[in-house]
Design goal:
By secondary structure, the protein is α+β, with helices and mostly antiparallel strands. The protein has helices at 2-22, 25-40, 42-48, 55-63, 72-84, 91-106, 121-135, 166-178, and strands at residues 108-115, 138-145, 153-157, 160-163.
Length: 179
């Protein structure tokens, strides 16, 4: 994964610079997301790696998924470059890196809060505000319910994790008592 990220990053940065210059970051993010999902399909992967299918046919196939995009001409150039360099499989990782670059630029971050029961709107607001203050970014908080954590919450923002679940606390207590 880290190796893919390393190879995809320069392409994603170049696309991000073009997107910012054209004020088309949202459009590019959508296109990369769609194409990333398409090339991740194993049937599409087989097609794209088939030497009997011409580069032009591969490009036409991929462009059909984003034919209504306002950045279609530049997307076409990108697809041709990636096909020529045998890097078309990087689009999914490019999409991830592109979204990270957008979040860094806009000082926003994705957070996921897992709770044992559905969190109220007040709890969501409180957690979002606390995370924004601590991380210095605008937080987009998503919530999930997992009854296995018993109570409390687990909050993830990228690699940053706050685990205040009762299940984890009980596990720690069990470890201490076992010593």
């Amino acid at each position: 994964m880290a190796e893919l990220n390393t190879v995809a990053r320069p392409y994603a940065k170049a696309v991000f610079q073009v997107a910012r210059a054209d004020d088309s970051v949202a459009e590019w993010e959508g296109v990369l997301s769609v194409l990333g999902q398409v090339v991740s399909d194993e049937r599409v992967e087989r097609l794209l790696t088939n030497p009997r299918v011409s580069q032009e046919k591969k490009a036409e196939f991929l462009l059909a998924f984003v034919k209504d995009s306002p950045v279609l001409a530049k997307v076409s150039n990108l697809i041709h470059i990636l096909l020529e360099n045998h890097r078309i499989g990087l689009i999914a990782q490019m999409s991830v890196v592109f979204s990270e670059l957008r979040a860094q630029t806009e000082k926003s971050c994705e957070a996921v809060m897992v709770t044992a029961v559905r969190a109220s709107a007040d709890i969501k607001k409180m957690v979002s505000a606390a995370l924004e203050k601590r991380l210095d970014c605008t937080v987009n908080l998503k919530t999930r319910v997992n009854k296995d954590i018993l109570g409390g919450a687990i909050i993830r923002v990228g690699d940053f994790v706050i685990d205040g679940s009762i299940a984890t606390q009980l596990q720690r207590l069990q470890t201490v008592l076992a010593k």
